[in-house]
Write a structure and sequence with these properties.
- The structure is a single chain.
- By secondary structure, the protein is of the alpha+beta class.
- A five-stranded mixed β-sheet has the order 2-13-10-3-9. A five-stranded antiparallel β-sheet has the order 16-15-14-17-18, with helices on one face.
- It has 24 helices and 24 strands.
- Strand 21, helix 22 and strand 22 form a beta-alpha-beta unit.
- It is globular, with a radius of gyration of 28 Å.
- The longest helix is centred in the N-terminal third of the chain and has 24 residues, at 2-25.
- Helices cover 37% and strands 20% of the residues.
- The chain folds into six domains: 3-63, Helix hairpin bin (Helix Hairpins); 90-317, 2-Layer Sandwich (D-amino Acid Aminotransferase, Chain A, domain 1), CATH 3.30.470; 321-397, Beta Barrel (OB fold (Dihydrolipoamide Acetyltransferase, E2P)); 432-506, DNA polymerase, domain 1, CATH 1.10.150; 511-581, DNA polymerase, domain 1 (Orthogonal Bundle); 602-672, BRCT domain (Rossmann fold, 3-Layer(aba) Sandwich).
- Bound molecules: 2-(butylsulfanyl)adenosine (IVH).
- 2-(butylsulfanyl)adenosine (IVH) is lined by residues 81-83, 116, 118-119, 123, 139, 176, 228-229, 291, 310, 313, 315.
Amino acid sequence: MSKKVKERIAQLGVQLNDHSYHYYVLDNPQISDAEYDSLFRELQALEEAHPDLISADSPTHRVGAPPLDDFEQVTHAVAMLSLNNAFSFDELQAFDQRVRERLEMEADQPVQYMAEPKLDGLAISLRYERGVFVQGATRGDGHTGENVTENLRTIEMIPLRLRTNNPPEVLEVRGEVFMDDASFEQANQSLIAADQKPFVNPRNAAAGSLRQKDSRKTAKRRLSIYAYSLGEVVGVQIPATQALALEWLAELGLPTNSEVAICEGAEACYAYYENIQGKRAQLGYDIDGVVFKVNELSQQRELGFVSRAPRWAIATKFPAEEAQTVLLEVEFQVGRTGALTPVARLEPVFVGGVTVSNATLHNMDEIERKDVRPGDTVVVRRAGDVIPEVARVVEEKRPKGARKVKLPAKCPVCKSPVMRSEGDAVARCTGGFLCDAQRREGIKHYASRKALDIDGLGDKLVEQLSDAGLLNSLADVYQLELEAVAALPRMAEKSASNLLQAIEKSKNTTLGRFLFGLGIREVGETGAATLANHFGSLDALINAKEAELLEVDDIGPVAAKSLLAFFAQKNNIEMINAILQSGVSFPVAEKAVIEPTLAGNVYVLTGSLESMTRDEAKHKLQLLGAKVSSSVSKKTTAVFAGASPGSKVVKAESLGVPVEDEQALQALLGALE
Ligand code: IVH
């Protein structure tokens, strides 16, 4: 009996996996959905009755496993690299030229490249041991990622067993997980129906779904994957070219992109790029450029890589998408420091994969420079996850009588006077904590992860508590009462009690966090930690004279003035005292003083970064002992290029200085987290 059952279970497993392959990878189903379901249920029933006979590659494992507390770390046997970017045909040609020189190619001999769409999702690694899928991980920082095996198992396009009778001992496959347009629409529709926030774009949707602690939720989303390279391979000869590697992966049952092509030389590469750009909207999934890889793997090995990016590949990214729409009006938002940011309210327009109805105008200088006026037709630009911006005005379409935007004399929230100091692009509300907008933003900041880290006191709840009149200052956080909080809409006794517990817990903190939480202008996270380390107590800092403040590393005259002004205000001192009286204390040691691990290195920053400003990046690099220079020379250790970098990248490449992306920068700064 058991032998028969065992055989049937094995047979069903093979059949179901085979049908999945035809359905999901080849897009060519062999049986009806009903037939598939019936086989699936038969297997489920047998496995339930004989749990000892369940195999590691059973298709029933695709429905998700119980949730995890946290993802384990996985160290990649072969690092997962990132790519350098080319932003023009010239840069692509320069790349080709460098490759030719290194490979000592004859003048009339073109390099063969494999051109592949650059999928806009997230890189993952799949590990097969003797043909069975055993582990899947995210890229992480390239060396260590997160173990997302259970989540990946739910993606039907991923074979749970390779389609070969003679599997290699180990095969690591690298590829991109993404969500196609149709699944993205579907996911968002169900989120909206469940009264939840929809995803901004397919990439966020893919990343959010894959990093679910509960893989049963991942199973409900339809994720796709294309395999594009090899990681660790043991026990088999690897193919001679990238093209053959892709063919091999396809034979093993892995999905590969059919849009790839071999291109000889830079011109052919550029033609491919233009062709794909034309097809972009019809692909059915998002791509953000093209990747060109030297086809011969022996040549790839010869070229090697510089720090984290290979010399044998380059990504040519598409320019930011633009669209025209009408500027309805300009409103001013008041931020935590009182800064008035003009925001363009737009006729909704679809650009860069999302519908945009607001765009930043940065500040008054920018408005004047671009001469943006309500009623204007404007060009809106959006790249990747960057905040949409108004690129320029279409002047021919300006309606008659369109008026210039004026900086309001009074704060739109609290009616305090607005001040703009000489030479400062930013205008500010002078209301301080008296301004409702500044107070709310200040409280959100105080509760945030890098400050007091009050679990559960997120932006929405701060708004709710403020609306209810329960939060009028930072000190009010400690006066919240169970009953009043529980009575708020969408709150209950349990959630209110959790919040109060989190507030209690956050009272034991560090001086650095507290200082950062106060939101003093010019005092960021690292500045606050440095001040805490230097003065050791809040009293010493409050009583410090300007000269003493200036002795602190990284505290310049502007930050010193701002600290003095903050502590000179009686209401600020009263607020601090009230907070301390509620039991906030600093028994926890400050973070150890940071090791200057980058001493001797010289970096150049260019282009716009997404996760931080260039100034922040500069500051952090300096904290780690590095120098940050504004021009590239032979002494430059590396250039970090964000979106739309300038000529510095070209210069770096001509000098052979490595050009790295933001991910590499973040990895380097990881020590500061
Ligand atoms: S190859 C050196 N091929 O782009 C090998 N990457 O900027 C690096 N990507 O982390 C990967 N499509 O997430 C490669 N066809 C493709 C790709 C691709 C998208 C992503 C991948 C990688 C990032 C590098």
